Amino acid sequence: MALIIEMLKIVKGFPGIKANDDVTLEVEEGSIHALLGENGAGKSTLMSILFGLYQPDSGLIRIRGKDVRITDPNEANKLGIGMVHQHFKLVHNFTVTENIVLGLEPVKGVVLDMKVAEERVRALTAKYGLEVDPRSKIEDIGVGMQQRVEILKMLYRDAEILIFDEPTAVLTPQEIHELIGIMKRLVAEGKTIILITHKLKEIKAVADVCTVLRRGRLIGSVKVADTSEARMAEMMVGRQVNFSVEKEPAVPGEVLLEIDGLKVRNAKGLLGIKDLSLRLRRGEILGLCGIDGNGQTDLVYALTGLAKIEAGQVLFKGRDITRASIKHRVDMGLGHIPEDRHKHGLVLDFRMDENLVVHSYGTAPFSRWGVLDYNAIRRNAEKLIEEFDVRSGEGPATPTRSLSGGNQQKAIVAREIDRSPEVFVIAQPTRGLDVGAIEYIHKRIVEERDKGKAILLVSLELDEILDLSDRIAVIYEGEIVGEVIASETNENELGLMMAGSTRKAVRA
Amino acid sequence: MKLILEMFPIALMFASPLVIAALGGLFSERAGVVNIALEGIMMVGAFAAASVTVVLEPSTAAAPWIGMGIGLLAGILFSVLHAFASINLKANQVISGTALNILAGGLTVYLAQIFFRQQRTKAFSTGLSKISVPVLSDIPLAGDMFFKGAYPTFYLMLALTVLTWFVVYKTPLGLRLRACGEHPQAAASMGVDVLRMRYFGVLVSGALAGLAGGVMVLSQDIQYTVTSIHGAGFIALASLIFGKWHPAGVLGAGVFFGFSQALSLYAKDITFLASLPTEFFYLLPYALTIVALIVFSGRSVGPRAAGEIYDAGKR
Amino acid sequence: MTKNQAKFAVPLVAVLLGFITGAIIIALTGKSPLAMVLAMFRTLTGFDLTGRTDFNPRYIGEFILQSMPIILTGLSVAFAFRTGLFNIGAEGQLMVGSLAAAMTALMVSAPPFILVVLSLLAAMAAGALWGAVPGFLKARFNVHEVVVTIMLNYTALHFCNWAFMTYGTLDSVRTADFPAGVTLKSVFLAGITNGSRLNWGMIPVALSLLVFWFIIEKTTFGYGLRAVGFNKDAARYAGMKVERNIVLSMVIAGAFAGLGGAVIALGTFNYGRILPAFEFYGMDGIAVALVGGNAAIGVLVSGLLFGMLKAAQPLMQSQGIPREIAGIIQSSIVLFVAMRLGIESLLSLAKRKQEAGK
């Protein structure tokens, strides 16, 4: 088969890092080609170059055998290249149609011709079987449909080459299955697909060829059918990977956190949590899984005090904390590793040591009579940096902004674990981290469990949930629809519950 | 009742510069650039318009109109500074706007000293004249309110409002403009030149605010001084927020504020208001603005990416 | 360039560029930039480089005098900025402070020294109240403080004028003088500066600088304010009372500005004044805060710089340069500081090109 894309010896650097270091990619027409690598490996950068968002510092690009310069997305579109982004680039208060035709609008004279636009969109949805409502506003439709709008954007521009950037992060197992079907149908219609991902299972399910990048360099390209997941993981990480954490079976003790009939409104004013009850026991990890947007975030906010509880009750060691302030809950022994490390977890403009005392700066030894003791603050930071191996350029005085994502997360985990809270709410602790950091953080979480803490682990990664949890609860549309023992369930059963298809008797 | 009818043309006279400037702000903010410098641009436009009118008055009756045209151009030039600072050099848009307001005050009076050797322009004799539209001014009620003794700039304001609505909501240009203000990364990925769109938004706001300044000084004053604009640019900003960034809303809000200013002139004729001190009426438009902001701020959401520095490298 | 170097380099570059801009405008309009430089030097040091007149310390006294209120409004704006708030209302907070100080001096009876202190405190309280309003509106209703504070400035102008008029004025321009001894004026200071209006207002100013530095850098309260200013969400997550901190920050900022009003009323004039228009102390404060990097030392230095610029105006006007050049220079400097992100990236781009060329 002919080579439709050739990216030869691509080099691209940004201040401080070489994102692509002499990378070569050759894609055959009509294939599904996976681009595999950890976060920061350079896959998104490479594809952004192909899509015209960046210019390579050096190297050559050939499309259908002809040398090209892709100076901006318009050029890429003209060459038939389209990209479905990981973080959707959709205008929230425009309609589906407006988002699809933006930049290539049909006109009658000087006026927008939305009727023609809508007709064209309907024609496309019929041809490729991508169900959308052309008139709905983006902010009103679900994530799966939003992704289809992203795909339609490219098809509207007659894209022949479609780049998918981490498409499955926000989908249920069933929706992933649908997406795989869509991709196979697109290829059957003659399209070529490049799939950027770090999910080995999906590569095995759908890709023909896989190119592996590590730290900006090309490691190699393999035929997927002939290569095992373990081998691909090794290429991606550079060493043998331990896929699961070692742990003893749990010895759960008394109930530390009781949640009853919780009702919480989310930022949009809708009921994010409708009627939720849960029990957290000492010495146990309860994993909460579900599709993003089904109430996990609202639950975490409600428990930690970031959101108001409209109805229901939360008892912490028998005491009612439903209306307690955040400070009060923290002082009582409730810990929280937040989902969004930049929004909640850190004050990026603070120094490292200032961030490490963000809960405790008001008490001795860090302050006395309202005056801060910077020596004590610095010593505390030195201790935590050493213990958790947080890589920071200037030690405690490092501006937090300059730390890598992984080290920022380690800093947050260090701070929270050091306080050793009785009840630990942990949300997405390893999002965007490399395998090494993930291994370490998982280990420390299990250590806390073994110390007798109660842990609520909220994660979008099913593997992480299955690996770490003792018990698993599934949340769907603001309610717990199932509670199972981790060792007795599997991905399929969980997936069905996550999609609301089945309910399992909830055991308190 | 008769009083209210009498007040209409005056209120609309006060409202016109507010609405025109606010429409300018709409273009800028819809593109994603917050423009606090509307006040300063109005000052520059007013100065230019007043100066040109004084100079050209002896030669032609169209002097005020030429003056307003020059005011518009001056506004564009001045706003280039804001565009360059906040778009190309990624300055904080509120700081850049504030600096330009200070600069406008200094620059206009400085130039007045150079050209007119005093801290104000020379007075012009007529400025804009009121007109009465034939036929339409005989309509009962509406004739008195809108077509008799009105300033022509009132009609200009209406025309610009309709034009703004058309461009922003009915043309591809408007769609792309709004996309830049809501989600510039999305617009860029669709091939829209975000930087150029934002420049367009800011320059249009410069044109309209400059024009508004000219309108204001030529219909409400006899010369340009450093207090000619006295906060109208900021009231225009409030109208934008009050009007939820939509041309029709902006028109309504501007007219409302125009009435609050007109009230001070008619207070002595309204018995229960006559006993209040004059300062109260100077105060009123500003206090009302605060109240309006309180009532409307919570629910009011502007273009999502307005005020954010656009970084092409962010993904 | 390290981050610390950049912190000082950018304002310096901006100041230089601002003066160059002023010089260009002066030259373009047919006046002498040299005259500008000479006037500024004379104001700063008292020496006349042309040799035509003798050393006159009155200029130094006047320039410090002009710096005092804008250092205070600068502290006001800087303090609010640290909490992430834009206090354009320093102008109005200063005016109500002036009013409160004047009213206290005129209406309360007490020994002169006590009365001075009471007036200063009243001014701080009035300014604090005027600052609390936008602070509260922002915290509770999320009303953007920029437009509200500007509206409050105009409100304050008219309200203060009405208040003075109602109390009673001589010829609608000013009130009666304050009682004897109720003043910050100093015969001693006027003496050593050859008759300038320099007064003991220097003491409240110096104390304010210290208090500012101490609160922001050394206290848990300051830590909380800085956290809220950098990242409201993280501050909330950590259990800090974000709304309360926003209000408190504006209260303190208002108090600084109000104190500035008192220093003017008790130090420069000794009577209350009807103002026909703004005197732009608040705007100057914004410039001072921004160029000073919102830190105590910076505010002091840039306050002195802009004070010098203001004090040089009459000298420049006498040389044919319209006094408004000071405002032009000042706003240009602010603009250049605001462009710092751009300047910084240009500088590092130049540095990289230099290294690539090696």
Describe the structure.
The complex is a heterotrimer of chains A (508), B (315) and C (358). Chain A has 508 residues and is of the alpha/beta class. Chain A contains 17 helices and 24 strands. Chain A is globular and about 70 Å long. The model of chain A has no long low-confidence stretch (mean pLDDT 87). Chain B is built from 13 helices and no strands. The radius of gyration of chain B is 20 Å and the shape is globular. Chain B has 315 residues and is mainly alpha-helical. Chain C has one domain (32-320): Orthogonal Bundle (ABC transporter involved in vitamin B12 uptake, BtuC), CATH 1.10.3470. Chain C is built from 16 helices and two strands. Chain C has helices spanning 3-28, 33-45, 58-82, 90-107, 112-141, 145-167, 187-192, 202-218, 220-230, 232-237, 242-269, 281-291, 296-311, 313-318, 325-338, 340-357, and strands at 174-177, 271-273. Chain C has a two-stranded antiparallel sheet with strand order 1-2. At the B-C interface, helix 3, helix 4, helix 10 and helix 13 of B face helix 6, helix 12, helix 15 and helix 16 of C.
- SSE-based structural type of chain B: mainly alpha
Instruction: Tally the beta strands of chain B.
Output: 0
Runs of chain B in which pLDDT lies below 50 for 5 or more consecutive residues are none
Q: Trace the largest sheet of chain C across and list its strands.
A: 1-2
End-to-end Cα distance of chain B, whole Å, is 59 Å
Largest sheet of chain B: none
CATH fold descriptor of chain B: ABC transporter involved in vitamin B12 uptake, BtuC
CATH class assignment of chain C: Mainly Alpha
**Poorly predicted sequence stretches spanning 5 or more consecutive residues of chain C:** none
- Overall pLDDT of chain C, averaged? 88
Named at the architecture level, the CATH assignment of chain B is Orthogonal Bundle
Terminal CA distance of chain C reads 18 Å
Main sheet properties of chain C: 2 strands, antiparallel
Share in helix of chain C: over 70%
Overall CATH class of chain B = Mainly Alpha
Structural class designation of chain C = mainly alpha
As a whole number of angstroms, the C-alpha radius of gyration of chain B is 20 Å
**Which second-level CATH architecture of chain C applies?**
Orthogonal Bundle
